[in-house]
Amino acid sequence: MTPTATKTSYHGPGNNVGRVPELPAERARLQELAVRYVADKGLQPPLGADEIRAHARRIAISEKIAVDHLAFLTVLVGNAIWEQVVAAIPFDRRLLLLPQCLSRPNACRAERDDVGLICAACGSCSISTLQAEAEKLGYATLVAEGTTVVRKLILGGKIDAIVGVGCLSSLERVLPDMCAHAIPGIGLPLLRDGCHQTDIEESWVLDVLKMRATGASDPIRKFENLRHEVETWFDPAGLDALLGQAGSHVEQVGRAWLARGGKRWRPLLTAGVYAALSGRESACDVRAAAVAVECFHKASLAHDDIEDNDDTRYGLPTLHCEHGVPIAINAGDFLIGEGYRLLTSMTALDAVVRNRLFEAAVHGHLVLCQGQGEELAFLAHPHTLTLADALRIYERKTAAAFEVALSFGVIVAGANGGVRTTLARFSRAVGIAYQIRDDLEDYTAPQQNAATTNVPLRPNVLFALACESDDPAVQRAITALLAMPESAARDLAWHKIVFDAPQLTARARQLFEHHRHEAERALAGLQHSDLRLLLRRVTGRVFQNEATPAS
Fold it and tell me: Where does a domain end: 182, 216, 250?
């Protein structure tokens, strides 16, 4: 959609990333360049923010575009990449987000609440015109600053795409977040920045609001429908239909544990990879493998909770606290057997394919036990740790489980080995980032009262960074900690180190971001748009809130 408004002079105090071209003809030219480049290169969403910026820079160099127009060009490239996806999403699943600074303070009669501005349709600015047109089409509309409310709407399943109006600097700032969560969006920059007497090309916004690709597939709905389908597999009726009625006591305990809590990321990954690679709307053909993945996962949690002496999971008593250690061990063992039984039940698959599933499951099982074994050996005899040691444990304990889930989808879909290799790289990065995020939560949330924390010392990146620190005070504290015979004293001493050395958590957060971005880079080689979209949306939700543990 090409901007065509009349000439509007640019006044951009505070805009540090560039400016919107002053002349409509130049804005239209850059729009055309972005659309043609995306089409010629065959770029498909989702792309990472760094990838989008890199493409914009290539256009700028090739076409000798002024550097202060690069940010505007970056937004246009992102728009062109997402345009067909947004056009396929029904109007009633889209949100029009307008900035409050479009209002005219001297004439505005709107009310303002905690969410944003409630337009009084006084006609003194563009808000009422744009809002009325959007709502007539079926859009949800919001006049507000910031992205917090928008993220809640998206993650709550209320909307699938955003048409967002904002200053160029704000659109640049929100780009990484939109890319990380694979949120389809069109960004429309204000012609004037600075939150005073701002303006927008109404005709451009109206054109974008009306764009619609009839009959096109809506990949966001496909993802959400698949997520709902997977959830039904784990309700009591769904489990009974697949596994049969639970008869014995161990079946009842194991089945209840399988159905309890969690976000079902792993079976969703299995189902999603299969659906994306096979082109199927439903993933019922891979259902047994996806439930097997969750059986293996829940068995490992039951055993880990015993080994770690944890009392709660999902806000409820752990399995061994509820039923006792012997029953919990047996229920975990039962779920492992149930997972392998499910794989043998997939008789519609060729024997060679079933064998590949078993090989993937066995490899993941053994690697997971090796990672847990290294952690238990450390807990029995704490010792200095390198960063490579910590990342190896993460890779074995967490990344391997993600790789099994993804591999199952690839194998049942019959995809080539190159896809599986790419997803193995992705799994490693996601698994490491996932574990760093969880350990940061464990060790930083209690810092306000470090003396009363009960989170034990474990082999993790924070401890490894402390062991490798060149700070003499940290080194002395680590040496004293390892000389302590009592585990409770070590735990308190360790938390004091974390509390007194915030550079450790800062460095760990850098590592988290590095591996999260490494997961995005791993997906850049995938040619399958639906698969990239699935994986970006799942990982975006896994990492959506560092204050909320994922499982």
Answer: 216
> For 323-341, what is each residue's pLDDT tens digit?
999 999 999 999 999 999 9
210 and 228 assigned to the same domain: no
Do 121 and 203 lie in one domain? The reply is yes
Across-strand partners of 189?
166
Which DSSP string do the residues of 31-99 spell out, in sequence order? HHHHHHHHHHHT--S---HHHHHHHHHHHHHHHT--GGGHHHHHHHHHHHHHHHHHHHS-GGGEEEEE-
Read off φ and ψ for residue 339, nearest 5 degrees.
-60, -45
For residue 419 the two structure tokens come to 């896809």
Q: CA-based diameter of the chain, in Å?
A: 77
Asked, for residue 515, whether it belongs to a domain, the answer is yes
Same domain for 244 and 130, yes or no, is: no
Residue-number span of the structural domain to which 82 is assigned: 24-216
Q: Which of 216, 243, 265 is the last residue of a domain?
A: 216
466-503 residues labelled b (16+ CB within 10 A) or e (exposed)? bbbbeeeebeebbeebeebeeeeebbbbbbebbbebee
Q: Give per-residue burial for 90-116: e unless 16+ CB within 10 Å, then b.
A: ebebbbbbbbbbbbeeeebebeeeeeb
Q: Contact, 371 vs 400, CB < 8 A?
A: yes
Query: What is the count of structural domains for the chain?
Result: 2
441 lies in the same domain as 483: yes
- What distance in Å separates the CA atoms of residue 276 and residue 322, rounded to the nearest whole number? 39
Cβ–Cβ under 8 Å, residues 343 and 270: no
Which H/E stretch holds residue 186? strand 185-189
Of 11-15, 65-69, 144-148, 221-225, which range is least confident? 11-15
Q: Are 406 and 423 in contact (CB under 8 A)?
A: yes
**Residues near 134 by Cβ (< 8 Å), separated by ≥ 6?**
96, 141, 163, 209
Give pLDDT, residue 271.
96
Residue 241 is assigned to a structural domain of this protein: yes
Q: Could you report the per-residue pLDDT of 467-509, keeping only the tens digit for each?
A: 999 999 999 999 999 999 888 888 889 988 988 889 999 999 9
Residue 551 lies in a domain: no
For the residues 43-67, what does the mean pLDDT come to?
93
**Model-level pTM?**
0.83
* Sign for the pseudo-dihedral over CA of 45, 48, 53, 54: negative
Amino acid at 455: V
